[in-house]
C-alpha cells in the first residue's frame, strides 16, 4: 500500500512541461532585472507531456522590444487549479516575460 501511495504522489508532482521561447528579441541572462510586460498560463495534458494550449512566447513579445527575459513559474494559482484538474491529467504552468533595458 505504501508503494502505491508513493507512486501516486510522485506522478502528481512530476511533469515534462515545454515552453517554446520565440520572438524577435534577444534573450537576456536570468541575472538581469526587467519590467514584466506579459504573462500567460499554459495548459498541458498527461501531466505536461502534451501541450493543449499555445505554449509559445511568440505572441507575448512585442516587435518593439529589443531584449527579454522569460521565467516559467509554478504559482499558487497553478497549484490550486492542478489539485482538481490533475485527477484527469490536465496541468497548468505560468510564463512571465520581462523587458530588459
Q: What is the oligomeric state here?
A: single chain
Largest sheet: 5 strands, mixed
N-to-C terminal Cα separation, in Å?
Answer: 55 Å
**Shape descriptor:** elongated
Helix content: 10-25%
Count of helical stretches = 2
Spatial arrangement of strands, main beta sheet: 1-4-5-2-3
Query: Unreliable stretches, pLDDT < 50, 5 or more residues?
Result: none
Question: What does this protein look like?
Answer:
The chain has one domain. 22% of the residues lie in helices and 31% in strands. It is built from 2 helices and 5 strands. It has helices spanning 2-13, 76-85, and strands at 26-27, 35-45, 50-51, 67-73, 91-99. It has a 5-stranded mixed β-sheet with strand order 1-4-5-2-3, with helices on one face. The model has no long low-confidence stretch (mean pLDDT 86).
Amino acid at each position: 500500500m505504501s508503494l502505491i501511495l508513493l507512486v501516486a504522489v510522485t506522478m502528481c508532482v512530476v511533469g515534462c512541461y515545454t515552453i517554446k521561447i520565440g520572438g524577435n528579441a534577444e534573450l537576456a541572462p536570468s541575472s538581469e532585472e526587467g519590467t514584466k510586460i506579459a504573462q500567460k498560463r499554459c495548459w498541458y495534458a498527461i501531466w505536461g507531456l502534451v501541450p493543449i494550449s499555445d505554449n509559445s512566447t511568440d505572441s507575448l513579445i512585442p516587435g518593439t522590444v529589443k531584449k527579454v527575459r522569460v521565467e516559467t513559474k509554478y504559482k499558487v494559482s497553478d497549484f490550486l487549479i492542478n489539485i482538481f484538474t490533475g485527477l484527469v491529467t490536465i496541468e497548468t504552468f505560468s510564463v512571465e516575460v520581462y523587458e530588459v533595458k
